[in-house]
What does this fold into?
Amino acid sequence: MLVFGAVPLFYMELILGQYNRQGPVSVWRICPLFKGVGFCAVLVAFYVSFYYNVIIAWALYFLVASAAPELPWVHCNNTWNTEWCWDSGMGINRTNYNPPNNSRVGGGASANGTLPHSAASEYFHRAVLEMQWSNGLHEMGYPKWQLVLCLLLVYGMLYLSLFKGVKSSGKVVWFTATLPYVVLTILLVRGLMLPGAISGISYYLHPELSRLGDTQVWVDAAVQIFYSVGAGFGVHLSYASYNTFHNNCLRDCLVTTAVNCFTSFFSGFVIFTYLGFMSHKQGIDISLVATEGPGLVFQVYPEAVATLPGSHFWSMLFFFMLIMLGLDSAMGGMECVITGLMDEFHTFFHGRRFARELFTLGAATVSFSIALINVTPGGIYMFHLFDTYSAGISLLCSALFEAIAVSWFYGLERFSQDVEAMLGSKPGLYWRICWKFISPSFIIGVVMFGLIYHQPLQYNGYYYPSWAEWVGWSLALSSILMIPLVAIIRMLRTEGSFMKRIAYNITPIEEHENMERTHCVSRFKPRHWLYV
It folds into this structure.
């Protein structure tokens, strides 16, 4: 999915942004019929901010908790703990461990009487999220004021990083991009000294090839790699629009994706050394210890740093690192929204005092207001809903139509000439084949599999009601439908026959303007779409 899907489209976004020097919406002057792709990308990035910034708020909460005399997720002697809690400093006597089967864990899931819960897991679910006070979406409760303050602080930091543009945000990234490798290396070295660590790494490196027959694996792989690389969001397109014209964006693409995948692979070693340790301590199979979603960060890593000498210092350093990493990504998403809309509606913003500052404040305020629902006792269920539908199928559709618009309508030859003008040579055969055939085919296949073999949405044993899934699909469709909606509006606003309207709207606006300047409008015949 990386080699034939995400990397080619990531490179395409860098080229589009750097050559045209426009945001993710206005860049579609090159092919006005597909301007809706830009609006789709902006909406996806905005929807992601509704829940992504909540993760940073959780990390901030853990950072403050790390300053306590004793790390609160180490032992089971706290008010929020249950009888199913196991102390990470002690082993578990499996013959004596037999909690009742009819109890509830974390507010939604029925407890499995044979499985204990780590102190870190109960701290996250019961002390931080307070899930025990909610049984689902019908019982959300009120926002937790401590998390509201953390969330407000996160949005405040985002605003201060963004309101002056990419120059202010770019300086922040230099420090935050290097710190994770130092922390991860320390955690890995310490993890390798713990019992069970080697079995964890063995489990990590041993593939289950039979799972390739599971269509959900392919869907998850595509969504994850597109999300991780950032293709389809319009974020890289926004940042690339600030590059110098002859910047080597091919090098940027290859280095960025290589470092991204190395970091994911490297952090996997860190995670599974501690999963192996937890499996050894609990006396259960590692497959039952492993979790997904926010559980990895807020259950496994707290367990990991608790094993280090001077655990308070390392805990604070780890969560500080997490906050900085999260802010990097959050700044990219919000920059996509701000740059995209301000570039598209530049006539409205031009000449207004503090236009950038006020618009950034407005976008942050709206996002913060919606994000508040995620810091209620039932907020984790809404969080999971946002996480599933905000940037799943809609993100893939954004990348798909971006590839189709450039390769089949703007024209691959014209696009190759743009690359040659910037870099001095045309893109190779691999890039051209991926852009026109392979990448779109991969995405279409994944989207079809995701729709045909859709699994019921559930979190921690709680199965979502049908109305909730309808809400999720409505959220996803609201961004996807921008593509046909804007195309229809463009067609209705254009005069002439149906074929002439199509031909006109797949021709770059610059060509129309050039024709008008040279008084050749009467002789202008738009190119036929079959010959693009």
Q: What stands out?
A: The radius of gyration is 25 Å.
